[in-house]
């Protein structure tokens, strides 16, 4: 089996998820390529021990990402750092000739993303993708197949969102995601938006205009030193877009929601597609439940399908078992390496976010900011 030697820059939550996925690679019996973690980099040395105790292939431990990029043993990088660092570090990774999986939003703003896109265009031999795991749930793979088969007919409406309540507590201390200089003016859209846009953009449902309502709900938070500090990033965003279905050219409404303050939600991603022939809806609240409605002129009846482990890339897990977050993370990384090796995703909706899709999200979020400030629909 071919091995791609990886470094992780940013060893926090998602870095650990990637490393754990690499440790589970035996779950993917048909893969002919695998990742191996050989280097880690983070400013917080307290994070090192978990990696070095569990991954003996790690030979480089450093707080200097330039040392990682100078390491000839490193072939690819997973980078999960605050948004204001994306442009500099992503571009330097690409310029070093190492493949890159980066976290959204691929730049703190559109100008930063434009610079990253230009760097990617100047280095066509480097494979670059953005992380987004939710389309790899089996139910969403089924919806993607329906989109490819034109099973929905004419699209009537699409509703997608990512809701969680991590900021519901007003006494939660301020961190970088609540500081505009580190997180960016997009706020929750930069944190969560690419997850929401992944399936619609892959379907070709590209917004033409957007009317955005942005909410700054908790305006100050504890600063960790006994005082209070301003919380300047947007907590919640609702985007009403008009999108075009490339199949027939018809325009339809598409609502995209990103919320960090959503009472009753732990961490919920959802998608609903309504068409003239069929409808489908899915939420990670019940990760094995897919609801389908197929309209044939008679009664309209929503049916429920218990999805098993029907993954895009074959797994040893039995088909009757329920999928979970760690499973879709593993699928996302398998999709990244599959496309790196074969030059194409195994399926249309089983590919990681492309640089062009990320660039589209920046156009949308930039237009959303303008729409909110002008209180009117804005061209994307």
Tags for this entry?
globular; nine-stranded mixed sheet; alpha/beta; Dihydrodipicolinate Reductase, domain 2; 2 domains; Rossmann fold
Oligomer: single chain
Strand residues, percent: 25-35%
Number of contiguous helices: 10
Estimate percent helicity.
Answer: 25-40%
- What class would the helix/strand composition place it in? alpha/beta
Q: At the third CATH level, what is the topology name of the largest domain?
A: Dihydrodipicolinate Reductase, domain 2
Task: List low-pLDDT spans.
Answer: none
Strand order of the largest sheet: 16-15-14-13-7-12-11-8-17
Q: Mind describing the biggest β-sheet?
A: 9 strands, mixed
Radius of gyration (Å): 21 Å
3D shape? globular
How many β strands by DSSP?
17
Supply the number of structural domains: 2
Could you please describe the fold and organization of this structure?
The chain has 380 residues and is of the alpha/beta class. It folds into 2 domains: 2-130, Rossmann fold (3-Layer(aba) Sandwich), CATH 3.40.50; 135-319 and 353-379, Dihydrodipicolinate Reductase, domain 2 (2-Layer Sandwich). The protein is built from 10 helices and 17 strands. The strands form 3 sheets. A 9-stranded mixed β-sheet has the order 16-15-14-13-7-12-11-8-17. Strand 11 (236-244) and strand 12 form a beta hairpin. Helix 1 crosses helix 9, helix 4 (86-95) packs parallel to helix 5 and helix 8 packs across helix 10. The protein is globular. The mean pLDDT is 97.
């Amino acid at each position: 089996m071919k091995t791609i030697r990886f470094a992780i820059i940013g060893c926090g939550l998602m870095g650990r998820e990637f490393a754990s996925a690499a440790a589970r690679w035996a779950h993917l019996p048909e893969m002919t390529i695998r990742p191996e973690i050989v280097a880690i980099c983070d400013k917080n040395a307290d994070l090192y021990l978990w990696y070095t105790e569990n991954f003996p292939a790690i030979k480089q431990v450093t707080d200097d990402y330039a040392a990682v990029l100078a390491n000839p043993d490193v072939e690819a990088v997973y980078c999960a750092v605050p948004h204001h660092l994306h442009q500099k570090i992503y571009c330097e990774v690409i310029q070093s000739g190492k493949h890159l999986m980066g976290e959204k939003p691929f730049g703190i703003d559109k100008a930063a993303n434009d610079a990253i896109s230009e760097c990617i265009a100047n280095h066509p031999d480097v494979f670059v993708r953005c992380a987004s795991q939710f389309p790899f749930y089996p139910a969403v793979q089924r919806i993607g197949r329906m989109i490819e088969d034109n099973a929905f007919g004419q699209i009537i409406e699409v509703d997608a969102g990512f809701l969680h309540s991590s900021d519901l507590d007003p006494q939660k201390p301020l961190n970088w995601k609540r500081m505009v200089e580190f997180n960016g003016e997009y706020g929750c859209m930069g944190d969560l938006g690419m997850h929401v846009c992944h399936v619609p953009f892959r379907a070709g449902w590209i917004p033409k205009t957007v009317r955005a309502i942005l909410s700054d709900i908790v305006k100050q938070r504890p600063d960790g030193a006994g005082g209070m500090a301003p919380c300047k990033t947007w907590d919640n965003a609702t985007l009403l877009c008009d999108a075009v279905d490339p199949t027939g050219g018809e325009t339809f409404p598409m609502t995209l929601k990103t919320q960090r303050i959503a009472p009753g939600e732990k961490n919920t991603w959802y998608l609903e597609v309504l068409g003239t022939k069929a409808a489908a809806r899915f939420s990670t609240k019940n990760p094995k439940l897919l609801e389908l409605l197929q309209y044939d002129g008679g009664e309209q009846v929503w049916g429920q399908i218990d999805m098993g482990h029907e993954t895009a890339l074959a797994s040893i897990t039995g088909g009757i078992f329920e999928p979970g977050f760690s499973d879709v993370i593993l699928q996302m990384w398998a999709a990244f390496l599959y496309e790196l090796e074969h030059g194409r995703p195994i399926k249309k909706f089983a590919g990681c976010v492309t640089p062009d899709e990320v660039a589209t999200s920046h156009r949308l979020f930039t237009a959303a900011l303008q729409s909110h400030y002008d209180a009117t629909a804005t061209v994307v």
